[in-house]
Each structure stands twice: as C-alpha cells, then as structure tokens.
C-alpha cells in the first residue's frame, strides 16, 4: 500500500482501512487505527506500520481513544467488506462472481441489504459502476470496443453500449475518440462545412461535421499520418480528382450497424440506393427503419458514403451533416469530370 493512500485514509478517518495498517505519531509516541477521530497530525510526524507488533516494537503505545489494541468484530461490516472484495476481484467473470457470492453462506438478498447499509449503494449498482470504471480505463488505453466489452464481462455488445451510455452520457466510441491516448485530431474546412477528423495509430475513427474549434494536430503524434492522408484524400474528393478512398477505417458499433456501414461502402461513386435496398442486401428486408438509424449514426462521413442512401420515392431524407450537405455531395458525384 502506498503512503499517499494510507495518508488519505487517515485524513478521512476511513474505517475500511482499519486492520490493514496502523500509524504512529512521533510527537506523542502513540499509534492509532486509520479511523481514529483524534486531531489529524502533520504528515512529517507520522510513521506507518503493517501491524500492531511493528508499532509496539518501534516504541509506540496504543491510543486510548481508538484503542487499536482491542480487537473488535462487526459482522455487518465484515460481510459487506468481504462482498466488496469479491466484486473487486471477480467483476469481469459473472460465473465466478456468482459462485463466490453464493459461497459466502448468506442469501443474495441479505448480502445486498448489508452492502447497501454499509456503502450506501446497491450491490448491482456497485458491480455496474466497477465494470464501467474499468471500461473507461480500457477505452483510454485505446482498446477496441468489442475487446473492452468482453474484458468487463459483457459478451452482449448492445447491452454494453446501453450501460456505458447510461453511465457516461456518451457512446463507448465517442468516449474513446475523446479520451484515448495516441488519438490525433484535426479540423478542415470543406464545401459542406467544417469536418472534424479523428484517427488512431491504425485507422480513421471518425469524420463528422463540427462547428467547434479544436486544438491543431500535433504532427509528432504517432497516428498523425492517417490524419494527413485523410485530409489529402478528402481534398482530392472535393476537387473531383478522387472517386474512392484508400484509408483504413475502424468502424465501431453493434453488429447490425457494422453490417449496414459495410454495405454502404459497396455503393459505387455517383450511384444511390434506398434504405429498403440496403436492408434487403444485408438480409433484413423489413428493417429499412433500423437501416435508417444506423445510417444516421455512421461515424465516418463520406468515406462510408451514407449520403448515397435515399428514400424509396427518391427524396433526400435525413443526413447527419444536413440535407444541403447531402444534396451537395450527390450533385458533386454526378458531375462530369
């Protein structure tokens, strides 16, 4: 245990650390539990011990206020603490988690009630928050969303998306784009407005319309090469010098969304498809509305040409960057080069 962690436990009189370490105060010659309510001493006057024996051998005597020399047993606190330790160790494996909780010898209902009383949070909420905290850490480290979902013990990607969004207010993909290490970003002006581009070391993550200024790209960033390549290819596209793109894409979403986005990439330059046609092509003939939602949530504009999907009557239906932008792109692609 690090000194800073122990010092914070002393400052906050954290009873959950009682028995895990003791601290002595040099100016008084006494040693205490971390939860002692006595006045907090200065850090330079404090020394830490792993056991009472160490404290006594160092010449300290027990505090008469917190009585670290007297063993106290609180079955409620002990049960709650044991439950918390099990969750912290096994939250990634639901089977093991359930097994260890069952082996505690109390009903799940009783364990939940005790846990709520001790920590002021329900058992299920603590498990969820623990998983989501770990998920945020993994996304910041740059792991794919599927890998993160599996790492936190949720094999249902749609369920993971829903839980993560409820917990953070944003999708896992958006969180990763904003907070992951080694993600480079830039913003370019185009005929359809400012476009924000994000890329990892391996691929383009996002192209979206944006009116918000962001920091310029740091060219020393390891992933900057894909930003530069993307800017170049987009310029060529708008100059009518390019009809396809040669960039790696990292499309992260549900299985259904990825099916739709992959199908969009098969629509030839200058042509269009209807939502119903896309639905039929991926094997969901009656899911044109769901295709429309996936189309709207496409994270990589233009490179994944969702602008080439139109209504059954030929109308230009919704587009994330706006209908004027959609009209411009379709007109651009129909021009004679």
Topology:
Layout: H1 3-11, E1 22-25, E2 30-32, E3 46-49, H2 52-57, E4 61-62, H3 75-90, H4 94-102, H5 108-119, H6 123-140, H7 145-151, H8 157-168, H9 172-179, E5 184-190, E6 193-199, E7 204-209, H10 224-238, H11 255-264, E8 273-274, H12 275-281, H13 288-296, E9 309-310, H14 323-334
Parallel strand pairs: 2-4, 8-9
Antiparallel strand pairs: 1-2, 1-3, 5-6, 6-7
What features would you describe in this structure?
The protein is of the alpha/beta class and 337 residues long. It is built from 14 helices and 9 strands. The chain has helices at residues 3-11, 52-57, 75-90, 94-102, 108-119, 123-140, 145-151, 157-168, 172-179, 224-238, 255-264, 275-281, 288-296, 323-334; strands at 22-25, 30-32, 46-49, 61-62, 184-190, 193-199, 204-209, 273-274, 309-310. The strands form 3 sheets. A 4-stranded mixed β-sheet has the order 3-1-2-4. A 3-stranded antiparallel β-sheet has the order 5-6-7, covered by helices on one side. A two-stranded parallel sheet has the order 8-9. A hairpin with a 4-residue loop joins strand 6 (193-199) and strand 7. The longest helix is centred in the middle third of the chain and has 18 residues, at 123-140. The protein is elongated. Residues 214-220 have low confidence and may be disordered.
């Amino acid at each position: 245990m690090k000194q800073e962690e122990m010092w914070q436990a002393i400052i906050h009189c954290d009873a959950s650390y009682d028995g895990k370490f003791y601290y002595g105060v040099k100016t008084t010659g006494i040693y205490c539990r971390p939860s002692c309510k006595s006045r907090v001493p200065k850090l330079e006057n404090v020394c830490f011990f792993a056991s009472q024996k160490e404290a006594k051998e160092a010449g300290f005597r027990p505090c008469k206020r917190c009585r670290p020399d007297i063993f106290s047993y609180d079955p409620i606190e002990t049960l709650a603490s044991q439950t918390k330790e099990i969750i912290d160790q096994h939250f990634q494996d639901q089977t093991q988690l359930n097994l260890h909780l069952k082996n505690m010898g109390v009903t799940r209902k009783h364990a939940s009630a005790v846990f709520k009383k001790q920590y002021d949070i329900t058992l299920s909420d603590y498990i969820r928050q623990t998983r989501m905290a770990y998920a945020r850490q993994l996304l910041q480290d740059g792991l794919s969303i599927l890998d993160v979902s599996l790492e936190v013990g949720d094999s249902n990607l749609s369920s993971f998306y829903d839980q993560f969004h409820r917990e953070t207010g944003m999708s896992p993909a958006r969180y990763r784009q904003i907070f992951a290490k080694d993600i480079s970003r830039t913003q370019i002006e185009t005929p359809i407005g400012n476009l924000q581009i994000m890329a990892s070391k391996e691929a383009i993550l996002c192209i979206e319309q944006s009116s918000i200024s962001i920091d310029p790209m740091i060219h020393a960033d390891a992933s900057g090469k894909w930003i530069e390549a993307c800017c170049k290819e987009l310029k060529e596209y708008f100059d009518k010098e390019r009809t396809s793109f040669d960039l790696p894409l990292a499309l992260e979403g549900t299985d259904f969304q990825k099916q739709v986005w992959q199908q969009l990439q098969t629509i030839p330059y200058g042509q269009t498809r209807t939502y119903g046609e896309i639905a039929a092509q991926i094997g969901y003939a009656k899911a044109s509305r769901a295709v429309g939602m996936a189309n709207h949530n496409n994270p990589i504009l233009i490179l994944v040409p969702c602008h080439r999907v139109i209504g059954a009557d030929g109308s230009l239906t919704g587009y994330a960057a706006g209908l004027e932008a959609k009209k411009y792109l379709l007109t651009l692609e129909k021009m004679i080069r």
